TrEMBL record:
Organism: Drosophila simulans
Positions of transmembrane segments: 20-38, 101-123, 135-155, 218-244, 265-287, 341-361, 373-393
GO CC annotation: endoplasmic reticulum membrane
Name of this chain's protein: Mannosyltransferase
Gene name linked to the record: Dsim\GD11855
GO biological process: GPI anchor biosynthetic process
Keywords noted in UniProt: Endoplasmic reticulum, Glycosyltransferase, GPI-anchor biosynthesis, Membrane, Transferase, Transmembrane, Transmembrane helix
Enzyme Commission number(s): 2.4.1.-
Xref: InterPro entries: GPI_mannosylTrfase (IPR005599)
Similarity section: Belongs to the glycosyltransferase 22 family. PIGZ subfamily.
Pathway: Glycolipid biosynthesis; glycosylphosphatidylinositol-anchor biosynthesis
Major subcellular site: endoplasmic reticulum
Length: 689
C-alpha cells in the first residue's frame, strides 16, 4: 500500500524514471532467464559460433567480408578467462560451469552491458541540452529493440551502441562550439568597443581563457568510426551525417572558416590511422593472408593485407549475392520495418519529417530548425541512412537498429503529449482541423500512445524472445546431454528441417578443427569427430525422407563394416509437420523398415517456414486421452465437425497449440529382415495391387 501511495503521489517524471529502472532490471533478468527465442541465425554465426566451430561464407579465408577483431576482443578473450575460472572451480570443487546455459548467457551478458551505453548517452545528451530525460529513458528501456536485440550478440547491436556514442560526442562538440564561438564573438565586439587599455586587457584575458573546441573528441570519434565500419560497413551510412555535422559546426561565423573545416578533415583521417592499421593487421593474421614468417622476412605485398569493408561492399554490390538472402521492394524499410520496430514513434517521426519537407519546398525557412541544431543532427541520423539502405534490395528490420537512439530522442515525449501539442498546419482548413482534433491533438492521442507503445513492445518481446524458433535452444541442450551420456565410439547424427541453423557451440562439443595440446606427451592433436548435423532448411518432406534413407543407409553400412561403428540418428522438425511426415512415410513405404519414435516436443516453438494450420494434427504422445482413437497412426487429426460448436473450437485450438512445438524423433532401422527383402515384398505388393 505504501508503494502504491508513493507511486500515485510522485510526479510524472518520477513515475517514468521508476518504470524505466524496472525495465532496465527486466533487461538484465532476460539474460539470465534466458530468452529461448531465436531471432536470426546471425545472432550466433556472425559472432560466437564463428570464433571456433562454424565459419560462414562471411569469414572464409579467400574473401572475408567480416572483421574478427571486435568479436574476438569482446567474446573470445572474456570467454577464455571464464573457461580458465570454470576449469579451476571444476578441479577444486567439482563445479560444472561449462554448458549450454553458460554458452548462451555469458556472451549475452556482455552485449547487454554494452546496450546500457545507449541509455547513458541518451541521458547525457538530455542533460546537456536541458531536455526531459525521464520519458526518453522510459521509451528506450521499454522498447523491444533493447529487450531483445540489445541482449543478443548481433553486430547490429554493437553498431547501435557505437552510433549512440558517436551521436553523444558530436552533440557535445556542437554545444561546446556554439557556446565558445558565441562567447568569443561577444568578447570581440566588447573588445572593439572598449575605451580603456585595462578593459581591453581584461577582455583579452577572458577571450584566451575560453576552452578549446575545434578538435574536441577527435581521437575517440575517429576510432569509433573505424571500429564501426569494420564491425558493419553500413556504419558508413549512419556515421557519415554525424561526422558531417561535427565537421560543419561553427561554420558561417567569423571564427570558423573553411581552413578549420579542411583541418578537421585532415586530422580526423590522421587520427583514424592507428585503429585502421591495427585492425587490418589483426585480420590479415587471422585470415592467414599474412604470416609471421613473411613479416619476419619482410616479404610483404598488398595481397598480404585484408580490408574486409571493401570485400563487404563488393559482395553487396552484386545483386545476385544479395538476392540469395532475400529480395525486398525498396519501400520495406519505410512501410514495414520502421512501424514494426518503433510502432507509434515511427508514425510520429515520418509525420514530422514530412512536415519539414513540406515547409522546405514551400520556402518557409523561418519555421525550419536551424541546420546546426540538435534537431537537424538527429533528423539526419534517421533519414539519411534510411534513404540509402532502402536502395539495397535486401532489407531486414535489424538493419535499422542504429536509428533507435535519434528517433527516441526526438519523438519520445509524444508518447505522453500526443502526436502534436499544437495545430501543425499553416492553413486552418475544416478537414485539417478535424484531422487534428480527432487524431493528432494531445486530447485525442495523448492518453493512448504510451499504452499502445507498452502493449506492442511487450507483445514483440514475448514473440521474438520466447516463441519464435524457441525450440532450438532446448534441442541443443538435449542433444548435448545425449552426446555426454552416449557410449564410447558411438556417433550421433542429427537431421533438421524447417528450423534455423543449430549453433554447434550450444551443444558443448569441442571443435574438431582446433588443435589442442597434450601436456603429458607434448603433442598437438585434434579431437575426433563424433557428431554430424544435416540441415535441410525448407526441403519438402518427400525429399527429406530420401535424405533420411541415404543417411541411415550409410550409417548401417558403417555399423555392419569392420569398424562396427554404432550410431544414433535423430530428426528435428516443427510439430506442425508431424502429420505430413507420417503421410510421407506411408506413401514412400519407408515405415516398413524405418521406425520414427517421438522422444520429445519442445514447447513453445514457432517456425514461420512451417506455420501451424488451423485444421492441423499433432503427435498423439502429447494429445489428450479422449483423442487417442484416430485414423492416422501416431498422429491425431482435428476433424471438422458438421456444425459450428464449442467442442469444435476447443479441438481446433488444442490442435493449434500442440503444433507450436519442435518435435524430436529417434530413427531406428528394423533389422529383423534384410532391407532388400522388405523392399522386394513392398514392390510385389504394389505390383499385385
Amino acid at each position: 500500500m505504501r508503494l502504491t501511495k508513493l507511486w500515485q503521489n510522485g510526479s510524472p517524471g518520477e513515475r517514468h524514471l521508476s518504470t524505466y529502472f524496472c525495465f532496465a532490471a527486466v533487461r538484465l533478468l532476460l539474460v539470465f532467464v534466458p530468452q529461448l527465442g531465436y531471432v536470426h541465425p546471425d545472432e550466433f554465426f556472425q559472432s560466437v559460433e564463428g570464433l571456433e566451430h562454424t565459419r560462414t561464407w562471411e569469414f572464409n579465408n579467400s574473401l572475408p567480408v567480416r572483421s574478427i577483431v571486435l568479436p574476438f576482443a569482446l567474446l573470445r578473450i572474456p570467454w577464455s578467462f571464464y573457461e580458465f575460472v570454470a576449469e579451476c572451480l571444476k578441479a577444486w570443487w567439482q563445479l560444472e560451469l561449462l554448458g549450454t546455459y553458460a554458452y548462451v548467457v555469458f556472451p549475452r551478458l556482455i552485449y547487454t552491458l554494452i546496450s546500457f551505453s545507449n541509455d547513458y548517452c541518451l541521458f547525457r545528451i538530455c542533460r546537456l541540452y536541458g531536455l526531459r530525460f525521464e520519458i526518453r529513458l522510459l521509451a528506450m528501456g521499454s522498447s523491444w529493440i533493447l529487450l531483445v536485440f540489445g541482449t543478443r550478440t548481433f553486430s547490429n547491436s554493437l553498431e547501435m551502441a557505437m552510433c549512440s556514442w558517436l551521436l553523444c560526442l558530436v552533440s557535445e562538440c556542437m554545444l561546446r562550439t556554439n557556446t565558445v564561438v558565441y562567447k568569443k564573438e561577444f568578447l570581440e565586439e566588447k573588445y572593439d568597443k572598449a575605451e580603456s587599455i585595462s578593459e581591453r586587457v581584461r577582455i583579452w584575458k577572458l577571450k584566451n581563457s575560453l576552452p578549446a573546441h575545434n578538435l574536441q573528441h577527435l581521437m575517440a570519434m575517429s576510432t569509433i568510426c573505424v571500429a564501426g565500419v569494420f564491425n558493419r560497413p553500413t556504419f558508413l551510412l549512419f556515421g557519415a551525417p554525424m561526422v558531417f555535422f561535427w565537421l560543419l559546426r561553427g561554420m558561417g561565423t567569423r571564427s570558423i572558416t573553411f581552413r578549420d573545416f579542411n583541418l578537421r578533415i585532415a586530422l580526423f583521417c590522421l587520427c583514424a590511422l592507428p585503429a585502421l592499421v591495427f585492425i587490418i593487421f589483426c585480420d590479415s593474421l587471422y585470415y592467414q593472408h599474412l604470416t609471421l614468417g613473411e613479416l619476419h622476412m619482410m616479404h610483404l605485398s598488398i595481397d598480404n593485407f585484408v580490408f574486409t569493408p571493401w570485400n563487404f561492399i563488393k559482395a553487396n554490390l552484386d545483386s545476385a549475392q544479395t538476392a540469395s538472402h532475400g529480395v525486398h521492394p525498396c519501400y520495406v524499410h519505410l512501410m514495414v520495418n520502421m512501424p514494426m520496430l518503433f510502432n507509434v514513434l515511427a508514425l510520429a517521426s515520418l509525420g514530422a519529417f514530412a512536415q519539414l519537407l513540406l515547409r522546405f519546398f514551400r520556402a518557409e525557412y523561418q519555421v525550419l530548425p536551424r541546420f546546426q541544431s540538435i534537431v537537424s543532427l538527429m533528423s539526419g541520423a534517421i533519414f539519411v541512412p534510411l534513404f540509402f539502405l532502402s536502395l539495397i534490395n535486401h532489407q531486414e528490420p535489424r538493419f535499422l537498429l542504429p536509428v533507435t537512439f535519434p528517433l527516441i530522442l526526438l519523438h519520445a515525449p509524444k508518447l505522453i503529449t500526443g502526436f502534436s501539442a499544437k495545430y501543425p498546419f499553416q492553413k486552418d482548413h475544416p478537414l485539417l482541423r478535424l484531422f487534428y482534433d480527432k487524431l493528432l491533438s494531445s486530447k485525442a492521442s495523448g492518453p493512448y500512445l504510451l499504452k499502445i507503445w507498452y502493449v506492442s513492445n511487450v507483445a514483440l518481446t514475448l514473440f521474438f524472445g520466447f516463441i519464435h524458433q524457441a525450440g532450438v535452444y532446448p534441442l541443443a541442450a538435449d542433444i548435448s546431454h545425449v552426446i555426454a551420456t552416449k557410449p564410447v565410439a558411438t556417433h550421433v547424427h542429427l537431421i533438421t528441417s524447417h528450423i534455423y541453423s543449430l549453433p554447434l557451440h550450444l551443444i558443448n562439443i569441442p571443435s574438431s578443427r582446433v588443435l589442442h595440446f597434450n601436456r603429458q606427451t607434448h603433442q598437438r592433436y585434434r579431437r575426433p569427430r563424433d557428431f554430424y548435423m544435416y540441415e535441410y532448411g525448407g526441403l519438402p518432406l518427400d525429399s527429406l525422407l530420401q535424405k533420411v534413407k541415404l543417411i541411415s543407409g550409410s550409417c548401417e553400412v558403417k555399423q555392419s563394416g569392420p569398424s562396427r561403428r554404432r550410431y544414433k540418428l535423430y530428426l528435428a522438425i516443427p510439430a506442425s509437420l508431424s502429420a505430413d511426415l507420417h503421410e510421407a512415410l506411408v506413401h514412400s513405404n519407408a515405415s516398413s523398415y524405418l521406425n520414427f519414435e517421438l522422444l520429445k516436443v519442445f514447447y513453445p516453438h514457432l517456425s514461420t517456414e512451417a506455420f501451424p494450420r488451423l485444421q492441423g494434427r499433432h503427435p498423439c504422445d502429447v494429445d489428450a486421452p479422449h483423442w487417442a482413437h484416430d485414423d492416422l497412426r501416431g498422429t491425431c487429426a482435428a476433424e471438422q465437425l458438421p456444425a459450428f460448436s464449442f467442442a469444435y473450437l476447443n479441438k481446433q485450438f488444442s490442435s493449434f497449440v500442440h503444433q507450436l512445438g519442435l518435435a524430436l524423433y529417434e530413427i531406428d532401422v528394423t533389422r529383423n529382415k534384410p532391407r532388400s527383402v522388405v523392399l522386394k515384398k513392398a514392390s510385389m505388393k504394389e505390383t499385385a495391387a
